[in-house]
């Protein structure tokens, strides 16, 4: 796949997921917007607000002027405060205000993506408060396709409306999360040098990957089969996503091999901020 094809694929994945969110929330009555999601402290309204806020900032819109309450227990870092401010600003918005702003944001952002002049590798600004910086244009699109698909799934679980688990955004999420798995196993979970860990994922998105920790303690992941791994974790795709995105400890996860190491890995499986 060429660089331009990659950009197009990420754009199409983003479009599919954000339009799916719009279709999902458009008919919701006011009460459903207050349903809790698996994102700590966030309701359906809050997740949609976050999606709107990030896309609006990428469009160059100014940050809202708003004083964030200091007693929000789920806000524990400066980055979290940065993300929370535009979310809290919209907590008094009605269903109609939310759906209208979302639709308008999608129209504007889609137009901006169609007319974008950046080359795939061109460095662009990533507006993320304390984590702000520059990254290649294709990587920004990848992160937005990943984030929007994950939040679509947050909304679907909260609203008991499953779907799109094998959408284009799901494949972006698979690759994004797998790239970060070796660090979670080798560094965060502290798997010793020489460890091999197999992850067998079933369901709408199937894959088998082996994480290997080398003699220096560095992890890597590949598609080769390990016949006698130290640990094998078997789970379905949705469980994998929820674990890797820090959405609690869903189940079931079948564990074979070193149980103590497996528990340590599962406790440190989240690779998102």
TrEMBL record:
GO molecular function annotation: metal ion binding
Entry-linked InterPro entries: DinB/YfiT-like, Maleyloyr_isom, MDMPI_C-term_domain, MDMPI_metal-binding
Domain MDMPI C-terminal: 172-264
Domain called Mycothiol-dependent maleylpyruvate isomerase metal-binding: residue spans: 16-156
Domain of life the protein comes from: Bacteria
Coiled coil: none
Family matches, as Pfam families: MDMPI_C (PF07398), MDMPI_N (PF11716)
Protein name in the entry: Mycothiol-dependent maleylpyruvate isomerase metal-binding domain-containing protein
Organism, as annotated: Kitasatospora aureofaciens (Streptomyces aureofaciens)
């Amino acid at each position: 796949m060429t660089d331009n094809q990659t950009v197009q694929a990420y754009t199409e994945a983003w479009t599919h997921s954000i339009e799916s969110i719009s279709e999902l929330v458009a008919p919701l009555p006011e009460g459903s917007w207050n349903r809790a999601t698996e994102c700590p402290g966030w309701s359906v309204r809050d997740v949609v607000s976050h999606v709107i806020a990030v896309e609006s900032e990428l469009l160059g819109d100014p940050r809202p002027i708003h004083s964030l309450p200091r007693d929000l227990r789920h806000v524990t870092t400066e980055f979290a405060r940065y993300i929370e401010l535009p979310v809290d600003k919209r907590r008094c918005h009605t269903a109609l205000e939310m759906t209208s702003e979302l639709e308008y944001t999608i129209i504007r952002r889609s137009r901006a993506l169609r007319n974008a002049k950046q080359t795939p590798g061109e460095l662009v600004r990533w507006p993320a408060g304390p984590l702000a910086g520059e990254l290649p244009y294709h990587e920004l699109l990848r992160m937005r396709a990943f984030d929007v698909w994950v939040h679509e799934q947050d909304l679907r679980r909260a609203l008991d409306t499953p779907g799109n688990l094998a959408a284009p955004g799901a494949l972006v999420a698979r690759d994004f999360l797998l790239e970060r798995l070796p660090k979670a196993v080798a560094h965060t979970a502290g798997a010793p040098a020489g460890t091999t860990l197999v992850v067998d994922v079933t369901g709408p998105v199937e894959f088998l990957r082996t994480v290997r920790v080398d003699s220096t303690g560095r992890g890597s992941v590949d598609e080769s089969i390990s016949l006698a791994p130290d640990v094998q974790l078997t789970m379905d795709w949705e469980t994998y996503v929820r674990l890797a995105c820090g959405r609690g400890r869903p189940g079931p996860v079948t564990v074979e091999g070193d149980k103590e190491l497996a528990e340590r890995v599962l406790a440190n499986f989240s690779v998102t901020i």
